[in-house]
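Translate structure to sequence.
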């Protein structure tokens, strides 16, 4: 496996010093803890489910190895733990009563809660993952709902991460599938970075790029085996997810791991899509559907010669700042989302003159850029197949979204983040609307994939 890759990645990382992946890796927790934190006492933090899955075992290992521990902090199993600030306050206040180092035993939400709580107590922490469900284990920052808005609160990544393959294999299948979709999303996010780089918007950082992209095909190549519980495929997935987190850590931004497919996911997340379902819709599942959607958009964009645009006409119809703000406001119905979107859109707004410069540059770089982006991408239909093989949803119906709202997501997602993606390129080149129309037309991508049979 990629032990050397991880070791090399840790050289670039700012917070994480040790990653251990393997069957039975949980045995190494007390020793890793001692190396990093000396004789400090440890406190296992879990929820009712993850405590049963691995927390109790971690506690037992600590006791067996003679580490000092404090009684575990266990959130209730029901209702499912939610990443909201109130939970951070609860844990933080409890941590302040002692000086033990938290050992988070859980997956995305629990890890994020411990990450931020430990930071508010000015303490490092360690993480024992229980599912290969997302790439946040080794990422800086925690995704938390605070004041009614989902936001990334800053806080360092864990000092050490342990991922026991026997534990990960036992995780619910939908969690592993979610992690797979989050990782496969790096195909389109990489393409977005290539575009931003070529247009001088955000230069590619070669080490941050390499950590995520160099082995992506290998990590994501066997979705059916992954679904069947194959150990090697699970190992590849968790390695990819941990490397992706380390990429964000080294570049100090999620650009390495998140593009337009994540903007689809964030938009749906902020609108509460699937939040109240019995099994809340995961981050990865939203990213997966977003990836198919963005890969399909790329196919429409790449078919065109963007070196031959009518720049004068595009300059003429480019909105002023005020018009742009009005158009963003008209697209959103939730007031918080509307304000956030206006701020993000105006942060990346360019004037008509700047548009001319950008489109001229696009004309120069297009032949080369088109080749690079094609080499980075996979056909949308292939991405859909791979996601399906891994057990992920791939279209709007499966995530409870109507076709009209889904089609509108293309334009709306462009407004919610200042990060430059293919959505911005298509908007600036004046082709976003027509590309979307083509995808949803009879015989267009979405029609072919889902044979809509007259619904809507
Ligand atoms: Zn993600």
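Result:
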């Amino acid at each position: 496996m990629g032990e050397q890759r991880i070791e090399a990645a840790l050289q670039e990382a700012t917070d994480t010093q040790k990653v251990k992946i393997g069957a039975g890796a949980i045995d190494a927790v007390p020793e890793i803890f001692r190396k990093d934190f000396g004789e400090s006492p440890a406190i296992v933090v879990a929820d009712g489910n993850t405590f049963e899955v691995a927390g109790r075992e971690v506690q037992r290992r600590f006791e067996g190895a003679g580490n000092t521990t404090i009684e575990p902090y266990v959130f209730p199993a029901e209702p499912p733990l939610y990443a909201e600030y109130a939970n951070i306050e609860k844990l933080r206040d409890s941590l302040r009563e002692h000086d033990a180092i938290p050992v988070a035993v859980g997956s995305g939400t629990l890890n994020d809660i411990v990450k931020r709580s430990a930071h508010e107590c000015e303490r490092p922490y360690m993480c024992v993952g229980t599912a290969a469900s997302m790439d946040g284990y080794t990422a800086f920052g925690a995704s938390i709902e605070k004041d009614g808005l989902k936001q990334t609160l800053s806080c360092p990544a864990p000092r050490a991460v342990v991922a026991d393959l026997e534990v990960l294999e036992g995780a619910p299948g939908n969690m592993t599938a979610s992690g797979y979709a989050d990782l496969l999303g790096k195909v389109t996010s990489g393409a977005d970075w290539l575009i931003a780089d070529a247009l001088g918007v955000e230069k590619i950082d070669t080490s941050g790029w390499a950590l995520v992209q160099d082995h992506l095909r290998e990590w994501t190549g066997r979705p059916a085996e992954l679904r069947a519980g194959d150990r090697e495929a699970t190992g590849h997935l968790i390695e990819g997810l941990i490397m992706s987190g380390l990429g964000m850590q080294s570049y100090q931004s999620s650009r390495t791991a998140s593009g337009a497919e994540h903007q689809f996911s964030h938009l749906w997340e902020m609108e509460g899509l699937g939040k109240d379902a019995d099994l809340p819709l995961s981050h990865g599942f939203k990213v997966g559907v977003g990836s198919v959607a963005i890969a399909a958009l790329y196919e429409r964009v790449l078919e065109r010669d963007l070196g031959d645009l009518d720049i004068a006409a595009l300059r003429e119809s480019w909105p002023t700042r005020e018009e742009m703000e009005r158009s963003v406001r008209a697209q959103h119905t939730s007031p918080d989302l509307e304000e956030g979107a206006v701020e993000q859109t105006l942060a990346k707004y360019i004037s008509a003159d700047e548009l001319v410069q950008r489109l001229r540059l696009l004309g120069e770089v297009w032949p080369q850029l088109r080749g690079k982006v094609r080499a980075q991408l996979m056909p949308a239909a292939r991405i859909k197949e791979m996601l399906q093989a891994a057990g992920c949803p791939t279209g709007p119906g499966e995530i409870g979204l109507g076709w009209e709202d889904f089609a509108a997501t293309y334009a709306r997602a462009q407004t919610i983040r200042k990060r430059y993606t293919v959505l911005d390129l298509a908007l600036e080149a004046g082709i976003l609307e027509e590309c979307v129309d083509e995808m949803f037309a009879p015989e267009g991508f979405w029609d072919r994939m889902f044979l809509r049979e007259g619904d809507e």
